[in-house]
Amino acid sequence: MKHSFGYKFTNGMIYAVLSLIGLVTLLPFLYVIIISFTDPSEYLTKSLILIPEKWSFSSYRYILSTEMFIRSLGVSAFLAIVGSIISIMITSALSYSLSRRQFFGKKFFLLAILMTMLFNPGMIPNFLLVESMGLMDTIWSLILPAVTSAWYVFLMRNFYQELPEELEEAAKIDGSNDIGVFFKIMLPISLPAIAAFGLFFAVGFWNTYFNGVLYINSEELRPMQVVLQMMLIQASTNVADPSVAAMLQSEQMLPPETIKMAAVVVASLPIILVYPFLQKYFVKGMLVGSIKG
After folding, report:
1. Which of 39, 100, 117, 159 gets the highest tally of CB atoms within 10 A of its CB?
2. Which residues form the ABC transmembrane type-1 domain (predicted)?
């Protein structure tokens, strides 16, 4: 089919604008990666670096050789894996229960969950609740307060409501109970939703910062984002000191900026690597609970 000049021109302009937007969005990420691999001596002598002449892994070696940062990576990995599994199980089980018509007290629990979306108790009540439960300075203080989301519960509830009831009836005729129906029938069917929401939970736990500041005092339990913030503050303080800046120039020590960029890359890389493997579930997962005409 032949297209008119106006059609081709419009398509060309759309592609050009989208390419420009994509390039502008991508440039900051490329700059972060380039600076993180730039040799310290070159970074200190040049004001702007687009493509470094000398590539170096010194910033990454420094970060990965820091015991505190390695330990914080382990804490964040534990939060992302264990926290996501617990969040998925609780959210799926709660959503499935609320989707059943025979569930006693369903309206009360739906109203209670809805209230948490409309009214946020605030930082101080949450802090007092965590403290009264004896979770202060424990890894569970970073998991249990963020274990589920009311919005995700409502979305998955709508998803389970759209499934035919004949599936549950057939499973019960074969001798399965409610728990067996949930684990053997409903969870495998809801894999797209679980994959999409599981990734969102994982990203949330991986980026845990505020709860880490509020509830964690022990150095060995600090998540990665809190340690990164401490490193950034320390680097900013050092670079503001003229004596430290002069020492960087004279002794060729690692510039704070390259350390920052390397830390950003190390913190972002695991989540970026996970996205492509779950991409095929995104479209189905994002349509969970949507209104169909």
Report:
1. 159
2. 73-278
Cβ contact 146:211 at 8 Å:
yes
| In the block, residue with structure tokens 């505020």 | 210
Which amino acid would we find at residue 46? K
Task: Give this prediction's pTM.
Answer: 0.77
Query: CB-hemisphere CA count at 13 Å for 21?
Result: 6
Give residues with Cβ within 8 angstroms of 162, minimum separation 6.
292
Residue with tokens 């990164």: 228
Q: Which domains does the chain carry?
A: 59-286 (1.10.3720.10)
pLDDT per residue rounded down to tens, the chain (293 residues): 566 777 778 888 999 999 999 888 888 888 888 888 888 777 777 777 778 888 888 888 877 777 888 888 889 999 999 999 999 999 988 888 888 877 788 888 888 888 888 887 788 888 898 899 888 999 999 999 888 888 888 888 888 888 777 777 788 887 878 788 888 888 888 887 888 888 889 888 998 888 999 999 888 899 988 887 887 777 666 554 454 444 444 434 677 778 888 888 888 888 888 777 766 666 555 555 444 44
Q: Position of tokens 């399965």?
A: 176
User: Within 10 Å of residue 105's Cβ, how many Cβ atoms?
Assistant: 9
